[in-house]
Amino acid sequence: MEVGMSERATIEGQAIYSKKVLSIYDFWVLGVSNHFFWKCPTRNISNYFLDNVSSNHLDVGVGTGYYLKNHLPQKTKRIALLDMNSNSLSEASNAISHFQPEVYQADVLNMHDLGVEKFDSISVNYLLHCLPGSLVEKSILFKNLKTLLNDEGVLFGSTILGKGVKKNFFAQKLMDVYNKKGIFCNFNDDLDSLSNSLNEHFSNVEIKMIGCVALFSCKNKTSNLT
Q1: What angle do CA 2, 4, 9 make, to 5 degrees?
Q2: Torsion angle of the four alpha carbons 149, 108, 20, 36, in this order, in degrees rounded to the nearest 10
Q3: In the 8-state DSSP scheme, what is residue 122?
Q4: Please, is 147 exposed, middle or buried when counting C-beta atoms within 10 Å of its C-beta (0-12, 13-18, 19+)?
Q5: In this structure, how many other beta carbons lie within 10 angstroms of the beta carbon of residue 31?
Q6: What angle do CA 100, 105, 108 make, to 5 degrees?
Q7: pTM of the entire structure?
Q8: What confidence tens digit (pLDDT) does each residue in 134-178 have?
Q9: DSSP characters for 160-180?
Q10: How far apart are CA 85 and CA 82, in angstroms?
Q11: 28, 145, 196, 223: which has the highest count of C-beta atoms within 10 A?
Q12: ∠185-190-194 over CA atoms, to 5°?
């Protein structure tokens, strides 16, 4: 029953991303919210993406495909998209159609083996704070994605923390509304929980805080490590 409830919460959380919402996503989230509320201008996440992306890359929780369409290197040999929401997958795949992306529709918290070749890098931007449960419960995402990452491959991304970060009045109000509506589930997401979850599955974990946003990167432990 608990699994069913988790799946239902995930479905309800991602359902917000309709075509109409996606049409204003870049303006509202990446333009307004990042700068004024979360105090992490989008250029910081863009630079982090550029620093970590490889030519064999999987993007998880694709949104509009903003980072892919604006910052994906031309030398990219293979790009794949993974999301539960068909609208997001359509929007992002159309934006980078010239790269002929692989497209996978799946729930990262309840994901079965995709049966695909592994990737050298995986990005997870602004997905964790939308998933249901505590960060400990959400860390199943890292366990699942690890199976898709080559040895010494890099997993990186960003998430908005709700606990232990300084928020202005408007940021707190917006976060309250988002959590109440089920768009966010991050009231108890904090830096220690994120660090512990990443270190459980990966090595070389690095986390950088900018405003309310945690930028993180880590490497897949090689097969001879426990």
Answers
A1: 95
A2: -70
A3: E
A4: exposed
A5: 14
A6: 120
A7: 0.91
A8: 999 999 999 999 999 999 999 999 999 999 999 999 999 999 999
A9: E--SSS---HHHHHHHHHHHH
A10: 9
A11: 145
A12: 95
